[in-house]
Design goal:
Order of helices and strands: HEEEHEHEEEEEE
Signal peptide: 1-26
Distance between the termini: 36 Å
CATH architecture: Roll
Helix content: 25-40%
Shape: globular
Largest sheet: 4 strands, antiparallel
Number of strands: 10
Number of domains: 1
CATH topology: Mannose-Binding Protein A, Chain A
GO cellular component, one term: extracellular region
Strand content: 25-35%
Main location: secreted
CATH class: Alpha Beta
Strand order of the largest sheet: 2-3-9-4
Protein name: C-type lectin-like
Radius of gyration: 22 Å
Domain C-type lectin: 40-157
């Protein structure tokens, strides 16, 4: 008797679930970025002048700004960020989310997004340099590798939260 009642209950709730429309998910309209961050195509980008190591930069992005080091996926994004960073009076290379965690010359973004853009300075082997920077000398358009313990400014990026508007 208990088995039959449970089966009916499960079937009832399954029916209800299937008849209930799924919630509509939308990006938050009119979201704002923190002060002094760049707002571009649904993302926020923050530049921080404090020179820190790569690991410290990533930790600060995550813990202090609920973000990650920036990753790039289009030429337009690279150019917009280059213009943004050039607006700060600094002449240092800048940490981005590019790294070679296995030290095997296979580079990834720290946020696990796809690696679909190429902007390396050259094709040379990256000896003992496993973290990526935007080069000041190229107006922040080209990447190069650095020793991860080097202290540099850094770039964070975040996306707005998805919110439920209706059910």
């Amino acid at each position: 008797m208990l088995l039959r009642r449970t089966s009916i209950s499960v079937a009832f709730y399954l029916c209800l679930l299937l008849m209930t429309p799924l919630p509509t998910l939308t990006f938050q309209e009119g979201f704002t970025c923190p002060e002094n961050w760049l707002k571009r195509e649904g993302n926020c980008y923050g530049y921080f002048e404090e020179p820190v190591t790569f690991a410290q930069a990533r930790e600060k992005c995550q813990k202090e700004h609920r973000a990650d080091l920036v990753s790039f996926h289009s030429r337009e994004e690279v150019c917009a960020i280059a213009e943004f960073v050039s607006g700060f009076e600094d002449d240092k290379d800048v940490w981005i989310g590019l790294h070679d965690p296995e030290k095997d010359n296979v580079w990834d973004w720290t946020d696990s997004t796809s690696f679909n853009l190429y902007a390396w300075l050259d094709d040379t082997e990256r000896n003992n340099e496993y973290c990526g920077v935007l080069l000041h000398s190229t107006n922040y358009i080209v990447w190069d590798s650095r020793n991860c313990e080097t202290k540099s400014p850094y770039l964070c990026s975040s996306t707005p939260q998805i919110i439920v508007r209706e059910c």
